[in-house]
Amino acid sequence: CVLCGRTDDCPEKYGEKSTYVGYNLTVHYYCLLMSSGIWQRGEENEGIYGFLITDIRKEVNRAAKLKCNICKKKGASIGCVAPKCKRSYHFPCGVQKECIFQFMEDFRSYCWEHKPVQKFSVKGSRESSQCIICLELVEQLPLYSVLKSPCCKNAWFHRECLQYHALSAGVFFFRCSVCNNKDKFQKEMLRMGIHIPEKDASWELEENAYQELLQCYQHCDIRRCLCKKGRDYNEPDSKWEIKRCQCCGSRGTHLACSSMKSWEQNWECIECRSIFAKSGKYSKQQKRSLAASEKADGTTCLLEEPSPKCPRPSSGSQHSILLQSPKIMCQSNVTPCSRLELPASNRMTMSLSPLMANRSLSLQKKHLNQQRREVSNILKELKLQVNTKTTRLNINTENVWISALKGFRQRKFNPANTIEIKFTGYRSRLKTDTSDGSKHHFFKLLMLNLQNSSLFEGSSVKNLTLDSQALKENLYFEAGRMIAVSLVQGGPSLGFFSKTLFDCLVYGPENVKPALEDVADVGVAQTIKMIKYSNSLSSLQSTVHDCYEFLAAAGCLRPITTLCDKNMLVNDILMYHVIKRVISPLESFRQGLKTLGVLEKMQMHPDAFSSIFCHEPERLSAETLCDLFTIHCSSEMDKVEGADFWMGYLQDVESGEAVVTLEDILLFATGCSSIPPVGFDPEPTVKFLRIKYPVGNKLYNCLELPITKTYEKFKNKMEFTIRNTQKVERE
Fold it and tell me: What is an example of a Pfam family matching this protein (predicted)?
């Protein structure tokens, strides 16, 4: 730069650095603006930014005679405007020395002794606040690097943060971030040397910056989408046209998927209908229109969940539970499949009526189910990394943890390979099994071993503990890796993590505040309680004296002068015992969870993943199994009768009128006693065939059921087969 002599190219500090080959000049924009002996005498398109070339050369010659009071070199073109002050300096030197340059009116400059300062109250001068922009701590002191909003009492900024914000927002959008005041805020910031360029905001200048706002939501969110071309397919003026929720507009459905005949019919998504139902604004006319639509089409809308306004069955009409079964519909001359287009495979998806549930699910339960569905989709996406190449693990049923650790540490182990399980040991059949059921059983045993291992502490919910030997052997990393592989390759939900441990993994330990419930050590918990519930300063000091060695080892010693000091002390102890003490195991555990990208997805979707890490998996219900299994049948009549018996049997099992459980049925069909978070592959199916007894094909998750004339025969065959299969497997 011809004015300051520096080669720095930092637009935020010195303005844009421009080179003009025709004039043989290179200059910083701010150096040009703030030079004391030059004025903008030309138009904007003349010279450089309106400064004539002859005037610039004269200013360079004038400055060459002046010595900078900071760096002691010639070329100081800027002078302090304070009366009788003779200091001169280069612009970069002035910035370094904390001079103030006012980018307004006459572009005045003030040296470090005469610069304007903001007036702070003495009372708050020793406190700290957060910078409104970067959220880091800022001291409430009259410093060059600290600026206070003139319109808000507790709005503080770093000068650097505010300058970056001004350059980005421009004069039209630069305002107080708290109260949105523009005039008063800009006037004060200009006085304190913040440059506010006369330009539009940077986000307004981006090409197609708001293009996404012009896009309409085009996706079918119905649980069982019937469109063969996918959920995103939209064909206007046809049954495959997507209709958006009339209330929120953020959910959609194909007309055919919700049994709507016309685009003009109103449609609300499940979330909006639930809100209306709770607020009492779900009108009778809406209910009548829905009922009429169902009656006209001969089937209920295959929505994600039943309408919140559907009537409940009376206590004395248990047999009416089957009113929605295909058999009863058929007898009333309304064939459920007569107007419903079936996929090419001639299969029909059965959905339980809300009459089959004793009570509607609570909002919390619905929210958890939504989160688990979201996790399932995420894990299925991660499962795409798993290739067909297999890795065999020899698992000793007598010592699952040791044999699993040995398998995971073998040189050729790759978490992206498909895992095969070969159980060995007492009473094992020495058979390698590639089915999901075998893997699920292995991972279930492994997670149970982990939960009760020395790596975790706590009763119902667990936190990491400090095991120096385990840390030395890198077991925390292996535990994290095992959990990641388990989730992606079909293992069960965990359900035993504390909220504190989960938050440490997702948000980082520095952003988590532990609670007393996280302390598993009875002695430490008792100490914290004694401090927390001290009701006088003397008793508090006495307790601290008694715990002196513990507090010193934890680094929590602090002077106790008032009773309020106990709160800080309790927080320090909790932070040390629950988090800082196990920071090394926690970091190692996090590294293990990064396997297959699981931790990254947890951090992107924390609410969804907390449903499988911190909450026990939901107990199976007849409705869950009915939704899980898709019915296939060669004959339409067999399908209707078989579906009737199947749904009735599930209801009997759930109500305790059978000798088997719903878990037994799922285990018989898939080899898994619970639904893994990643779901099943392939999806479970039910086939009605001309066979004598039920068959569970665990390799394909297929339940083959016999076609019988009466429900009693169907029930007896189901229970006989499942009980005997369990008996044989146990033996």
Answer: PHD_G2E3
Q: How far is it between the farthest Cα atoms of the chain?
A: 112
- Closest to 712 (Cα-Cα) out of 645, 615, 623, 641: 645
Rounded distance, CA 293 to CA 260, Å? 7
- Whole-angstrom distance, CA of residue 335 vs CA of residue 454: 59
Partners of residue 18 on adjacent β-strands: 27
Contact 180, 158 (CB under 8 A): no
CA–CA separation, 338 vs 297, rounded Å? 9
What is residue 634's predicted lDDT score, i.e. its pLDDT? 65
- Rounded CA separation 221/225 (Å): 8
**How much is the pTM?**
0.52
Angle CA 562–565–567, to nearest 5: 140
Chain-centroid distance of CA 156 in Å reads: 30
Using CA of residue 436, residue 437, residue 439, residue 444, what is the dihedral sign? positive
**β-bridge mates for residue 396, sequence order:** 424
Domains belonging to the chain, first-starting first, are 17-110 (3.30.40.10), 128-204 (no CATH), 386-617 (3.90.1750), 622-730 (3.30.2410.10)
More confident residue, 279 or 467: 467
Contacts 24+ apart (CB under 8 A), 140-143: 142/117, 142/118
The confidence band for 369, taking pLDDT boundaries of 50, 70 and 90, is confident
Q: Is the peptide bond before 308 cis (omega within 30 degrees of 0)?
A: no
Cα 98 vs. chain centroid, distance in angstroms?
43
- Cβ-contact 675, 689 below 8 angstroms: no
Q: Say yes or no to pLDDT of 539 above 50.
A: yes
**Residue for token pair 């209908």:** 273
Residue 712's contacts (CB-CB under 8 Å, 6 or more residues apart) are none
Average pLDDT for 567-593:
92
Q: Beta strand 463-464 with 702-706: parallel, antiparallel or unpaired?
A: unpaired
